[in-house]
Amino acid sequence: MKILVCISHVPDTTSKINFSENNTVFDKTGVQFVINPNDEFGLTRAIWFKEKNNAVVHVINVGLSDTESTLRKALAIGADKAIRINHNPKDGHSVAKYISNYISNNSYDLIIAGRESIDYNGGMVPGMISAFTDINFIDKCIDLNISGDSVEASREIEGGKENISTKLPLIIGGQKGLVEESDLRIPNMRGIMMARKKELEVVEVNEDYQSTNSKSFEKPLPKGEVTLISADEIDKLIDLLHKEAKAI
Amino acid sequence: MDILIFAETDDKGNFKKDAFEIASYAYEISSQTGGSVRAICFNSKNPEKLSDYGVKKIINSENDELKNFDAGIYSDCISDVFKSENCSILVLSSSSNSKYIGGILSVKIDAGYVTNIISIPVKDNNLVVVRNTFTNKAFETVEITKSNSILAVSKNSFGLKENPTKTEISDFNFNISERRNKVSSIEKTSNKVTIADADIVVSGGRGLKGPENWHLIENLAEVLGAATACSKPVSDLGWRPHSEHVGQTGKPVSSNLYIAIGISGAIQHLAGVNSSKVKVVINTDPDAPFFKAADYGIVGDAFDVVPNLIDKLKEFKSVND
User: Fold this and answer.
1) Which residue of B87, B119, B205, B213 could cross-link B4, Cys pair, CB 3.0 to 4.6 Å?
2) Is the backbone of residue B212 left (phi > 0), alpha (psi -120 to 50) or beta?
3) For residues B207 and B253, what is the distance between their CA atoms, to the nearest angstrom?
4) How far is CA B280 from CA A237, B62, B288, in A?
5) Which residue of B has its CA nearest to A182?
6) Using one digit for the tens of pLDDT, what is the confidence trace for B93-109?
């Protein structure tokens, strides 16, 4: 089984979000980048398939050379090969199209993407790849088991879960549940040393597939102070929620 | 510029509140840019309800094969209607199912697709919208450079606006393909209000000391008609199911009212709940970070405050409902 895991290179949650160049570009100064959490759950499940079923695991990212540190981390966790599409992506549509083109030239049985990235929160890449490549798709996948080309999976739905049978090839939008937080791996020294020797293929592209154009960013106004209410004035809280906030 | 909305129904065939919100949103676009609003729905029991929100034409397909959601089949049907009605804008909600089909549809109808939208589009050659990004830490202004657009509206960002209109209701003859994913079973955790549909969410953290105290959260939620949720440590400890975990790696919450009890407010938690309109925090520690993110706060012990709050809310409800 050949697995491709799509990896987004995103600012760590605790990062300060700032913009430069007249609020048109995300300011990377001092920002620590990590594997997108939803992708990391998927990558960990892929490594599980490698260890149990001898799967081959590739990781792919669309980005400039600064994203290679994140791909190397994925290799150190256990992926066999990394692919970087050398392009500064401007929207989810172009990311999905570049990855789909790569898939069409290099067939995979299973493609894992996170349900969404924690930076731009588009949540569109896995669905677009499924449509471009015409392969089966499960979004918000929280459990994934494979035997031969048969797939038993679960998807999170509102108020519960849906159990699904389907066939490979398949793409999933993954999230927590594929593995638990405690299953995530921190690369060890051996993994980091081995990652340096693993293949990192750089793919050059010329076409542009943008369908949306980011014009500017703005930060929300600083939030007003919290209104503190004494624990013995519950009536006052109810009154504020009813009359001022109109929330009840 | 005609606009199509996908109006979702629940298991019983009633429209979800999101359906009325995106209808209101689409009507506002049409009143600014011309064109009319059409809706597609599957097996709706009362499709005419959309006419209250400005929908001129409703395509309601009553077909058993469309009873259960299937991303492939639903997106085929919606794209067929979008094309045959000559629409150029498709408006979706931010529900799980709409997010599932959004990316697929954008390829099928060759549209620029923007999610988490919080503004009415401005037409300046192309459509320009504002969206939430960086997990609610920033707004982004985005221009759609294709002639077709899919606009996925962030829940509760627009609200409901009634615009009663004369409506035509029709059916549509779909060519339904075979399901590629077979649903073998559906497990619903309960019949309670779901986090995604709730206007009010009551959420508990480690401050509640153990799962045996969750009746406080459940009773408060019951009085308010709210959904229950929890912080990540609580689901990791197994006190509550993972499906209740809200935050960055759990479910996102954008309710009208979010009440956090015994939750300190780690940055990952706040990231997931920040788009809720009004936030109330109850915590013994006045230095808990959640007080900086909340609108109203009570420094106090949940075991004293919550039972008192439940009693007072019952009184309030008996007078106001």
Assistant:
1) B87
2) alpha
3) 20
4) 9, 43, 13
5) B236
6) 999 999 999 999 999 99
Helices (H), B85-153: 96-108
Q: Rounded CA gap, B250 and B269, in Å? A: 9
Q: Do B316 and A248 touch (CB under 8 A)?
A: yes
DSSP 8-state assignment for residue B85: T
Walk me through the domains of chain A, giving residue ranges and CATH numbers. 2-219 (3.40.50.620)
What are B115's strand-pairing partners?
none
* pTM of the full structure: 0.94
Instruction: For an interface test with A, give the residue of B298, B301, B304, B318 to mutate (most A CBs within 10 A).
Output: B298
For the cut 80, the answer to whether the pLDDT of residue B189 exceeds it is: no
Q: Where are the domains of chain B?
A: 2-170, 200-320
Q: Quick check: A89 pLDDT over 90?
A: yes
Per-residue confidence (pLDDT) for residue B224, from 0 to 100: 96
Identify which of B141, B188, B280 has the shortest CB distance to residue A159.
Answer: B188
ipTM for the predicted complex comes to 0.95
- B113 lies within 8 A of chain A by CB: yes
Let me know: does A93 contact A210? Beta carbons within 8 Å.
Answer: yes
Q: Is A134 left (phi over 0), alpha (psi -120 to 50) or beta?
A: left
Pairing of strands B87-92, B182-188: unpaired
Give the C-alpha separation, A200 to A58, whole Å: 10
Name the residue facing A13 among B103, B268, B294 (closest C-beta): B268
The answer to whether the CB of A119 falls within 8 A of the CB of A11 is yes
Residues 58-77 (B) with a CB less than 8 A from some CB of A = 71-72, 75
| Residue B296 to residue A17, Cβ atoms within 8 A | no
Residue B188 — pLDDT band, cuts 50, 70, 90? confident
Pairing of strands A56-63, A227-228: unpaired
Whether the per-residue pLDDT at B275 is higher than 90: the answer is no
The answer, yes or no, to whether residue B135 has pLDDT greater than 90, is no
Which architecture, in CATH terms, is B2-170? 3-Layer(aba) Sandwich (3.40)
H helices of chain B, where?
17-33, 71-84, 96-108, 215-224, 232-236, 267-273, 290-293, 302-320
Q: In this structure, what token pair is assigned to residue A38?
A: 């939803």
User: Is A159's CB within 8 Å of B312's CB?
Assistant: no
Percent of chain B past pLDDT 90, that is, above it, reads 87
Q: Judged by CB atoms within 8 Å, which residues 22-51 of B form the interface with A?
A: none
- Tell me the C-alpha distance between B30 and B8, whole Å: 20
Strand partners, B61: B42
pLDDT in tens, B239-265: 998 889 999 888 989 999 999 999 999
**pLDDT reported for residue B191:** 66
The whole-number pLDDT of residue B307 equals 97
- Neighbouring-strand partners of residue A157: A160
Compute the average pLDDT of residues B151-167. 95
Three-state DSSP state, B187: strand
Provide, as residue numbers in chain B, all residues whose Cβ is less than 8 Å from the Cβ of A160. Answer: 186-189, 243
CATH architecture of B200-320: 3-Layer(aba) Sandwich (3.40)
